Amino acid sequence: METTLEVVLPGVVEPDGLVLRRRELPAPERGQALVRVEASGVSFAEQQMRRGKYYDQPPFPFTPGYDLVGTVARVGGDVDPAMVGKRYAALTKTGGWAGHVVLDAADLVPVPDGVDPAEAETLVVNGITAWRMLHRIARVRAGQTVLVHGANGGVGSTLVQLARLAGARVIGTASPRHHDAVRALGATPVDYRDPDLPGRVRELAPGGVDAVFDHVGGPGIVDSYRLLAPRGTLVGYGTAATRDVQGSSRLPVLKLLARLMWWNALPNGRTATFYNIWAGKRNAARFRTRLAEDLGAVFALLASGELRAQVAARVPLAEAGEALALAESGTVTGKVVLIP
């Protein structure tokens, strides 16, 4: 019997509480493909899931893993056999921290030949998120100025690069230890712990910024909104400020959504919205088409060398606990990647 390794999140545990187990290798059914995972990411979603605080996580126990890159090993009926042996990326939300995963073949997005799987992995959820927030929501143009919170992180470092490629000027918040890395990406760094962070940003952009990308939420979201120029756009996409706060996982998100909706209704020309990567999922065909378009655009930039993948570390799947602790430490630039 063929088996595969997977990581199980048994409940609310510390990173070292993750469990490793082997299970029978799953077989693809009609319309499905068995993917041999080559890289899976460690993101903020898994950090919240292990605390039981991710907005719509499944009941424990389950296998985490929000996205992955791998090679198709087998296919079920009604699937093109030519997919076997080719590399694809996929959004999974859960299940990616495993050696093999069965997925709907229609959900797989091709990875360009010659692209390193770990590098491609860093740009699946992060690349889609950054691309859509920048181009589909804020519609950033050349000559504009944007503020990226957490500019050293997985989404943040990608946002900085895409904004620079679009011809925008970027101000990026990060801890001082990451300022050189932020500068290397083309942004002007600002200490996110500066008591007068808004004042520092206003010195750099006296007229306000055209877009703010805020993954933090919490009280600081008010400053993000106030820093907007007329007709500026605030895009919230997380609640990192509540990571270690006890209580409901839904309440902080609902409060943030209510606040953004209120601001968006004000007649001042500014817009405020919350980005959800799964929005539009009910229309499966349209969701898949747009996913392929957006991720394809990001992968093309990676393949051409215009976009640099920020791989913080490559960690064996069997050491998922150490990888999760590293991702939570705040000491890395980019994304931690698990390698089965």
From TrEMBL:
This is NADPH:quinone reductase. It comes from the Bacteria. InterPro entries: ADH-like_N, ER, GroES-like_sf, NAD(P)-bd_dom_sf, Zn-ADH-like_protein. Residues 11-338 form the Enoyl reductase (ER) domain. The gene is qor. It holds the Pfam family ADH_zinc_N_2. SMART domains: PKS_ER. Signal peptide: none annotated. It comes from Saccharothrix coeruleofusca. GO terms for molecular function: oxidoreductase activity.
